[in-house]
């Protein structure tokens, strides 16, 4: 099954582009959505997180206290590495299972939405193409600041913890600048979609 790894920095518009490709038939598997499922009350990651980080990492309702863990991860690199080492294998396995289901349902290709694709060090070799959603730093900050509870300082901390723009460009096979007029972006997405359909056809 032909697969594409979609990535980009915070605020680049990954979810928007993934949604546009989904409407065209791509089978979308979103790492963030899977992560939320695993860390909700009763999720498969809750007990390992409790054992590794203590009860204070779990909110009163039984889900991961995401705000608290985000603050810990961005202030303590060792804690972030420990958190990622715990979550990433669970997320990857769940994503592979979801991809198998979508393939069986007849999706023409699989789109893995992986914000930390570059940082993981392995995802780029696990997919057939890497699609980077790119934009300027100023645009990233403006978009993140528009989210509830976020400000420029928080946006910059997240950006600093992620791979640099140049690192993402280095591994990208396809780059979509997500700052153009919507009609232009739609046209480019349609071109990418047709390209991926042709590549899938050649694999059959």
List the helices and strands and how they pair.
Blueprint (H helix, E strand, L loop, with lengths): L2 E5 L6 H10 L3 E4 H8 L7 H8 L12 H10 L1 H28 L5 E4 L3 H4 L8 E6 L2 H9 L6 H10 L3 H7 L2 E4 L4 H22 L1
Parallel strand pairs: 1-3, 1-4, 2-3, 4-5
Sheet with the most strands: spatial strand order: 2-3-1-4-5
How much helical structure, as a percent, in the residues? 55-70%
Biggest β-sheet strands, sense, barrel:
5 strands, parallel
Average pLDDT over all residues? 93
**What best-fitting shape do the alpha-carbon axes yield?**
globular
Assembly state (oligomeric)? single chain
Count of helical stretches: 10
What is the radius of gyration? 17 Å
> What is the count of β-strands?
5
Distance between the termini: 8 Å
In percent, how much strand structure appears in the residues?
5-15%
Uncertain ranges = none
Order of helices and strands: EHEHHHHEHEHHHEH
Broad structural category:
alpha/beta
């Amino acid at each position: 099954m032909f697969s594409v790894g979609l990535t980009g920095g915070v605020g680049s518009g990954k979810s928007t582009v993934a949604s546009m490709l989904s409407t065209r038939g791509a089978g979308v598997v979103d790492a963030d959505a899977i992560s939320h499922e695993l860390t909700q009350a009763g999720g498969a990651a809750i007990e390992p997180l409790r054992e590794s980080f203590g009860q204070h990492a779990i909110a009163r309702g039984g889900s991961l206290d995401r705000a608290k863990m985000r603050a810990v991860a961005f202030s303590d690199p060792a804690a972030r590495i420990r958190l990622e080492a715990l979550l990433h294998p669970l997320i990857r396995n769940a994503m592979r299972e979801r991809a198998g289901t979508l393939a069986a349902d007849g999706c023409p290709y699989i789109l893995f939405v992986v914000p930390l694709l570059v940082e993981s060090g392995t995802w780029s070799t696990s997919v057939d193409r890497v699609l980077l959603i790119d934009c300027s730093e100023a645009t990233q900050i403006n978009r993140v600041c528009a989210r509830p509870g976020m400000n420029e300082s928080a946006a910059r901390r997240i950006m600093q913890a992620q791979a640099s723009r140049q690192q993402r460009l280095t591994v990208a096979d396809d780059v979509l600048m997500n700052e153009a007029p919507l009609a232009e972006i739609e046209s480019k997405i349609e071109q990418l979609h047709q390209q991926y359909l042709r590549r899938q056809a050649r694999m059959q």
